[in-house]
Amino acid sequence: MTLRRVFLISLASVAAVTAARAQAARLDATADVTVRRALERELVFARAVGLPEGLLIAKANEGIAKRATPKRITDAVAALGKRLQVARDHLAPNPSDDEIAAGADALYVGVPAPILKKMRAAWPNRSLALPLGVLTELVAKGLPPARAAQTVTDLMARGASNVQLYALAQSVQGDVAAGWAPEAALDLRARGVMSLLPPAPAASAFTNPRRP
Amino acid sequence: MSSRSRRAVAVAREESPGVLWAIQPADPISVRPSTDIDPDVPLRARNGDAAAFAEIVEFFHVRCLRYARYMLGEEEDAEEAVQDTFIRVYDHLGQFRPDARFEPWLFRILANRCRTVRERRRRRESLVITGELPAVAAEAPDISRDLLDEVEAALEDLPTEQREAFLLRHVEDLSYEDMAIITGVRLSALRMRVKRACDTLRTRLQEER
Amino acid sequence: MDMERDELIERAAAVLRRRATRNPRVVARILGTVEGRPRRWWRAASWPSAPFSMAATMTLAAAGLLLGFVTREATVRPDRGASVASMPAAQALPLVAVARTGEALPVPVQFTLRDVRAAQVALVGDFNGWSQTATLLEPGTASGTWSVTVPLSAGRHVYAFVVDGRTWMTDPRAQKARDLDFGRANSVLIVQAP
Q1: How far apart are alpha carbons A30 and C48 in whole angstroms?
Q2: Which of A77, A94, B125, C186 is most exposed, with minimal Cβ within 10 Å?
Q3: Would an 8 Å CB–CB cutoff place B123 in contact with chain A?
Q4: Domain B33-133, classified CATH 3.65.10.10, yes or no
Q5: What CATH number does the domain located at B138-209 have?
Q6: What is the pTM for the complete model shown?
Q7: Of B53, B131, B147, the CB nearest to C34
Q8: Can you tell me the ipTM of this complex?
Q9: How far is C106 from chain B (nearest CA, A)?
Q10: CA angle, C158 as apex, C153 and C159 as ends, to 5°?
């Protein structure tokens, strides 16, 4: 390796660290020094692999706002970093920052990563931020992730709109609050939305063929 | 003993806390400085003295919040349970007998409210959560946050009845006789619960060292 | 000898005991609730020492039950200090525009809270970096009402209110999201886009 190459790599590393420090300046001023250092390390990595750095800073600021211990904050930021990378990889190609954030939220509540890929396949050219948010809330309400994901992706493939997905989530939440079992509520409400949609396509890579 | 008789005994225990219903003799080590309020204050509150009731709230709310927080795990649930407790105390002061001790009577109401809140929490969708934020992440300079985290985590993993028994005995410093009044459980069962809780905590905390 | 008490248990108990701070807000709420609260009629009366007839006793009990229900209905509901908002707290206003790619432009969302005791209410959430100074609610014309409108992207958002710089409060009218990272729940809002 030539001296010039080494010099350029060093410069790049220094630049990355400098940029990370500049970003970390958006961190709450009351942040503990251990939090600040841990965040800078995460930001260097996030910048290197193209992850939205603002989300990591926001997570640290959330912890500070909640008066969490430095250890909890650094653990949370590190865990988020991993989730963001997985989300970004499974929502490829070129997911937006909102989609990556939504994907990370879905992973947080237990949605398996391959489901993100299936959702991308269902809506290759539309933002997945809202469907992922709906899925996250359904799982948070107690639905098994695979079941909830199957329902949401089926609806997406059948042409459900964001409004309809949103209405599904609201209805299921209301039913669960009224004492319904989550799966029963989802089944009922999904049928309702399905009845408004055009018939299923002849073949689908991700939906089960339904009997008439 | 029939259920009716058991109920009668439970009521009698509550009404006459001074009587030792247990077969085991009182543990001399358990005699400790009283944590109860001056007996005159609840009596004045019972007779309509608003300042006396305020004194009761001021005297007990810190311990009540602490107990509820450890039983319920969340600040907002704890505050709800404690508020409900004192409102019930206010509503039922007429039932408080002048010759009874106030502390176990109050904690009995609190323990029941905590059970109710815990059972109701699963079905609750929307909740006002209010929690005073600590001034800094580590409040007490001579307490390691790690130790507090460890102890709290270990406490949270205990079965509910063991956690309740441990808190009443070792954190609230109550006698087994008072605990029997509060929980309606026999002394021998309470001792067993406390022992098991201590054994579990001891093992857990030693493992994490 | 008390075999339960060894050094480790004592230390654990001491640590747990130290977590106890006075909470003036809770005290104020309790005392505010009971102020003027009607006391139940049977608390004022003392049971007669002379034996009553069964019919008289049952009549008395039935009257007590009826009066108890009436009294309960008339009782002022506990004021939790930060009262439940009288209107939906987070209301998404109609969508302004939709971009061609399907990614909607931000949707204006109004957040409201009713807290008669607050001097300052801040909105914190994933959309403003959880900053306690970036988005302050403004007082409304009705006493104790606060609101602010914020543009949010479509999708799921988590947020909370911080009252007077020290009280974390979720939205009384919104769904709640448990917080496994830091142990303080947030409120959840899904902003829809066509």
Answers
A1: 65
A2: A94
A3: yes
A4: no
A5: 1.10.10.10
A6: 0.51
A7: B53
A8: 0.75
A9: 26
A10: 105
